[in-house]
Amino acid sequence: MRTTVGIIGAGPAGLLLARLLHRAGVDCVVLEARDRAYVERRQRAGMLEQGSVDVLQECGAGDRLEQEGLIHSGFELRFEGRSHRVDLPSLTGGRTVTIYPQTEIVRDLIALQLTDGPPLLFGARVVAVEKADSAQPVVRFDLDGREQTLECDYVAGCDGSYGASRRALPADGVRLHTRTYPYSWLGVLADVAPSSDELVLAAHERGFALHSMRSPAVSRLYLQVPNGTDPKAWSDEAVWDELDVRLAAGSWRLDRGPVLAKSVTTMRSQVIEPMRHGRLLLAGDAAHIVPPSGAKGLNLALADVVTMARAFTHWHMSGSTALLDRYSENCLRRVWQAVYFSHEMTTLLHRAPDADAYDRRIQLTRLRRLTRPTAAAAEMAENYAGMPIV
Ligand code: FAD
Ligand code: DHB
């Protein structure tokens, strides 16, 4: 098989890239290791910056997002038993965010691609990317028990942090920056209407808790837990009890419902520099991971592929590799801004295992200055709402 851009991975990054390239007349093929049902059900992010919403709408994947997305103009910071609302429009010159689950974005993009798009092969597990530093890279993949090859002009590695793209990077010349935080998130999806119209981020002295949502009928909740926690070690009742304690504020009540899914995510940052090796360009989680406290992972993945699609389109139209050559540099500025913000939110809201009363006082002081319309609050709100994708 042969194509212009071989895309590895049908997560949000790979699917949006395929959509943008298809609309620009650039040939591509998407190889996805898992089956369609698995990819469409994988529970992950839920908060979209306005720039991400705009991109999905512009590429024709915005119909359901427009109807079902929940526009949020603020969120609550909760600590010491009190709630403090952060008003995004007044702090950012009018910006808001939209709650629309990653599962639905993936579903919308897959439906579009299967009716009007380039080939998308499910069950196609890439085993190697070869000759990335030549003019004709080759992707080797298994499909139906047979090894096959895809010859390409370029390869887009959109296959997450455990994919084949990272394994194709040379040990020298590419640097991996990494930070693992000493805590994880236990995430639960619950079949119950959200107890609050807006997201609630709680910095309790027993640890962080987050009340989020996926729709007017489904809640998404998170608890800080120690690294290595087995989700099965937490009964549903224990999860609700702990959420009650950490999210408590005045007369506010958390409604309980059947738990549909439970999983643990480690809080970590990783950045690969540069995000390119020869004709292999990385995007999304393949290139970088951020802890979810800033809700930036999905938004960064979409911003990367907008930049990448623009570079491929420019090359396709003009033969110039100028934008491809600047791809990594152009992405990394936004990536490090998101890594920094995610780090700030992570340390602002979590309790480190070795934290003492001094650390807690510093944390409360940081939190309090965010509850007034200060420069610090404006900076947090701007980062949370996100910068336009340029
Ligand atoms: P992915 O969504 O990981 O997609 C990669 C695709 O590549 C997958 O479909 C995978 O099956 C496929 N693949 C992998 N290896 C191969 C191979 N060898 N061959 C072919 N295909 C392959 N972000 C937030 O902003 N907020 C959150 O609340 C949040 N929660 C998260 C919870 C979890 C458990 C995880 C893991 C991530 C979370 N994130 C969150 C991060 C966000 O979901 C990711 O940043 C986003 O999925 C990145 O999209 P992507 O397309 O780069 O990668
Ligand atoms: C989610 C929302 C957030 O604002 C965040 O920081 C992390 C996760 C969510 O809805 O999954």
Automatic annotation (TrEMBL):
InterPro entries: FAD-bd, FAD/NAD-bd_sf, PheA/TfdB_FAD_monoxygenase. Pfam families: FAD_binding_3. PANTHER family: 3-(3-HYDROXY-PHENYL)PROPIONATE/3-HYDROXYCINNAMIC ACID HYDROXYLASE, FAD-DEPENDENT MONOOXYGENASE. Its EC number is 1.14.13.2. It is an enzyme of class 1 (oxidoreductase). Residues 2-341 form the FAD-binding domain. This is p-hydroxybenzoate 3-monooxygenase. It comes from the Bacteria. One of its GO terms (molecular function) is 4-hydroxybenzoate 3-monooxygenase activity. Keywords: Monooxygenase, Oxidoreductase.
